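Supplementary material to the annual report.
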Amino acid sequence: MSGRRTAALPTPVALLFLLPAAALFGIFVLYPMATALTYSLFSWRGTAQEAFVGLDNFVALFTTEPYRSQLPRAFAHNALLFAGAMVVQNSVGLLLAYVLHRRERVRRLFQVLYTMPYLVSPLVVGYLWSLLLSPLFGPVNAALRALGLGSVAQPWLGDPDTALWVVVLVTAWQWVGFPLLIYGAALGSLDPTMEEAAMLDGATSRQRFWHVTLPMLLPVIGTVSVLTFIFSMEAFPIPYALGGSNGSPAGATDVMSLLFYRTAFNSGASNAIGISSAVAIVLFVVIVGVSVLFTRWFRKVERGLT
Amino acid sequence: MKRAAVHVVLWGYAAVALLPLLIMVWNSFRSDQELVAEPLGLPVSPSFDAYQEAWVEASFSTYFLNSVLVTTASVVLSTAVSLLAAYALARSRSRLMGVIEQVFVSGLMMPVFLMIVPIFYLLDRVGLASTRTGLILVYAAVSIPFSVFVLSTFLRQLPVELEDAARIDGAGPLRTFWSVLLPLVRPAVATVVVFRFVPIWNDFFYPLILVRDRAQYTLPVGLTTFFGEYQTSWSTLFAGLVIATLPLVLLFLVATRQIVAGLTAGMGR
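Predicted assembly:
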């Protein structure tokens, strides 16, 4: 302990070392965050702050058009993005991580291959899929025709019924590399003696997965779910690339971030800043609120299991 | 599972993950006529015309240089200031430092949509609106929480004896930091650099809103105007996507270990 004591930096020196980071962080993160909170409580005329209006901007957001109908729709689409990602990562992602875990020789290779989409820019991914799904030269429709499924081929992004599912699947396709890596790392850090013991007791590999491995993975699955939720709520580049800032066709691919972006920068409404700040705060409250509640609930479930 | 089934699953998903990216690459070497005539064809007579067009006519050379400059400068700046801060946080026992660390780490949950309008006004007021310098400062600032978190965690695990020895030899704090600690934290620095490089290189939200001047565009914003203007020049579009992706693939190939380490940082629990 005495070694630690002697190495301590005197506080004035420590503050000096902290200064550059604190200044940068204070000016470009803390200050904007603090002012943003007040923005939503004022009415705006263009870029000029006018009167303090309390919660009027929030009331307007929930009661006047177009926000009244666009907000719940966009939110529902974000929720669907979350659901889609969760289904894919906890089926395909978990399965692949589990299969790779027991094959050390090929693990690294496949991890690299599977993580590639996750590392490519989401904007590039969105634009790439818009090209792949093109009705004119898109390889997806061409492949369907080649397989004799020509009747399924269609303008995927032109039809409101399919466009949203394209956004959901493309998002999940890109994101799944991340949970896969995390699950892989978590499986690698599990105590192998538990599984060996279950094996000696005659448990089948399926039983071992459901009753031994999966319960031990639960904490990690919980943490990844929270990250997936945050990511789904903030999704922006993929919907932007696939449907533009209006969420075309007909708002079918609209999400919260696009609603915010349109309101703040493209709407031309004089109170754009007041309303868009209210959108941003609602989104932030939902993200933090759900994350905290989910984490708490999950801890309880975990404790119940052990 | 049977061996064969396992191989089908593994290679099957490898195809799902990689085929779209491979198609992107080989379609960039085919002409528009070839793309329409044979959507599933391979590049039989590969041509670099699309790259020529994207790089020169569609100003990808400008976007690319801007991206390199902005990403490198902001990663270097944020890593430098975060290292100094992490050293202070890891080696000071003052209560105040604990509070400051909490403030930094709370930034991991930063509400970007909430902050963007004030940042826009702030840059406008100090004359940095629509400049690369403004973008660099913002990226460096938003990188601090992650960088400080990873670096201070790593520094705390280092033994303090070496620093004591340096101090007894008469080295001041800055000298100790520079010649004793810096060589030791290299692995953590590599993780931070790689792991901030990727999201900043890929980021599209900040420049979309903060940069209005095309000469200052980074690759992702450049891509959005490009997709508007070259709508019908498909092979050029594919080439543009490849140009935006190539540096990341190179980075990934040389730094797989750091990327995996960064992704799984703090997840072990």
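Chain A touches chain B through 99 residues (CB under 8 Å).
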